[in-house]
Amino acid sequence: MHTTRIALSEKIRKKVTPILADRLTDAIDLSLQLKQAHWNVKGPHFVALHELFDSIHGVISSKVDDLAERLTALGGTADGTVKAVVNRSRLPAYSPKITRGEDHLEAVAAALATFGGLTRTAIDTCDEAGDKVTADLLTEITAEVDQQLWFVEAHLQR
Q: What is the pTM of this model?
């Protein structure tokens, strides 16, 4: 742990920083999955989905930065390397063979739902550990992910 004057004990920070590190790698994976969908979507709704995936990518990318900055502010180290993401992400793998718009929507919805669930669980853990600021950050991220999931699922409803 790096030293900091943030008014949280090292004990609390040692509980919270691994959670932030895990959510960071998941968020990086999610952002890359969104780019995979954006670049490779095909079909009759190409433009709408191409733009939707890019828009969601922008939202998630800003959350990646928020997670990394909170992690380092608390004395942790943000590891955003490809190896870290491969080894730590808990999101379902994204098939590089997907091309159909509906298949991308299903894969993106699964990734967003998984990430949202993991982040929602982390809220309570950070709050119970005594770090309400990180819990609030994760709450904000979860709300944003829920909204983006709603946008994706709207395309899948009949």
A: 0.96
